[in-house]
Structure formats: structure tokens, C-alpha cells
Design brief:
single chain, 96 residues, mainly alpha, 80% helix, elongated, disordered N terminus
């Protein structure tokens, strides 16, 4: 499964984003899909790790790549979370 990128430049220029934008899909929907993609990567990584440990397969390279992709996706999601919180705090500091 291909993960949804969180890069705003790539995201806004993708055909899927434009189609969803026309349907009225908002930031929350995109964020939920991104979280689901990160969760899927984590589950794939766990499944491959368990298979390697139990001897179901011996492809350590595929397992390590999946684990690293999962780690990178999670770190990116954490950075997005921090940016969203910072943006919210900045909006709350605005004086009207």
C-alpha cells in the first residue's frame, strides 16, 4: 500500500488531492488518511518482524526496510502533530 505523503507541495499537486478538494474533502480527512497509512506501515512492519523471528521467512532486508519506513513515517507524523499544535497556539495568541 502506498502511503500518503505529507509533503504539502507533493500533496497539493497530486490528482487525488485535487479530486478530493473538488469533493470538499478537508484537512481532517487528509490527516485521517495519513494516520491510517502510518498505522498500516507499522502493522506491516510488525507482521514482517514476527515472521522473521518465527522463521516463516528469512528476508531480513525486506523486514529492515519495512521497519525503517514505519519509523520514518511515524517521525514525520509526530513532526506534523507538533506543527499543527504550534499553529493552533499561534492562532490562539492572535488578538482580535
Amino acid at each position: 500500500m502506498k502511503a500518503i505523503g505529507l509533503n504539502p507541495i507533493q500533496l497539493s499537486s497530486s490528482p487525488a488531492f485535487k479530486a478530493k478538494e473538488a469533493q470538499g474533502t478537508g484537512f481532517g480527512d487528509i490527516l485521517q488518511e495519513s494516520i491510517a497509512a502510518v498505522n498500516q506501515k507499522a502493522q506491516e512492519s510488525a507482521t514482517l518482524s514476527e515472521g522473521l523471528v518465527s522463521g516463516q521467512h528469512s528476508n531480513i532486508h525486506e523486514t529492515m526496510i519495512a521497519m525503517e519506513e514505519s519509523s520514518i513515517s511515524f517521525r514525520m507524523l509526530a513532526k506534523v502533530q507538533n506543527k499543527v499544535i504550534n499553529a493552533y497556539n499561534e492562532i490562539m495568541r492572535l488578538q482580535l
